[in-house]
Amino acid sequence: MLPEKILQSAADFVRERFAHDSSGHDWQHISRVRQMAVKLAAEEGADLYVTELAALMHDVDDWKLTPGASAEHADKTPETRRFLQSIAVPQPVIDQVCDIITRLSFKGAGVATPMHSLEGQCVQDADRLDAIGAIGIARAFAYGGAKGRQMIDDTVEPEMHGSFESYKKNKGPTVNHFYEKLLLLKDRINTESAKRIANERHEFMQLFLQQLSAECRGIH
Ligand code: ADP
Ligand code: NI
Question: Does some domain include residue 124?
Answer without folding.
Answer: no
